[in-house]
Specification:
about 170 residues; five-stranded mixed sheet; five-stranded antiparallel sheet; 10 strands; about 15% helix; about 30% strand
């Protein structure tokens, strides 16, 4: 297959299309497909339930929904815990660090993804929208966004991910 020439004559109406095609062909790989998420690690996939491991060391982790979800289950077992600083704080559930940890972490509040929520709280977003708090009851609009979403992204409420440790399993029931 030969590459289209930028110097070949083209009708005036198609000149813009030719320039756009040339830009796409010559652009570095992935430049046009920038994204702020990675795929979540699947741990269980059945006809009515899917589970995914959400790591505290990654940013947004995407789950492609099979159907309209009817419920979410955030595991709280001993292995389903994470922390925003493995050297200083014990692992917590998806609800995040408690009041004592929050007080000690106050000088680092600029590293929260959402400053109104505790460090370590699990966040979700529907189709790349705003970050939602999974630890509280959603508003009607938030619930509608989640129920109509094609993709859900999850992450820990922390942007300094290098010192984090652990993961939490999220299960989606259909």
């Amino acid at each position: 297959m030969t590459r289209p020439s930028l110097h070949s004559p083209a009708p005036r109406a198609g000149a813009f299309r030719c320039l756009m095609l040339a830009a796409l062909l010559l652009a570095p790989a992935g430049a046009a497909l920038a994204r702020d998420w990675t795929m979540a690690e699947a741990t269980l996939q059945e006809y009515d339930e899917e589970c995914f491991l959400i790591s505290s060391r990654k940013g947004w982790q995407r789950v492609e929904l099979l159907d309209e979800p009817i419920a979410f289950d955030f595991r709280t077992g001993s292995r389903d815990r994470w922390t925003v600083d493995a050297a200083r704080y014990d692992p917590v559930t998806y609800m995040g660090h408690g009041a004592a940890d929050e007080a000690a972490l106050a000088p680092y509040a600029q590293y929260k993804y959402r400053r109104d929520l505790p460090f370590g709280r699990m966040l979700a977003r529907a189709d790349g929208g705003p970050a939602l708090d999974v630890g509280s009851d959603p508003s009607y609009d938030e619930a509608q966004r989640v129920l109509s979403a094609l993709n859900l992204d999850f992450r820990i409420n922390d942007t300094g991910l290098g010192d984090n440790q652990g993961s939490v399993e999220v299960c989606i029931l259909y």
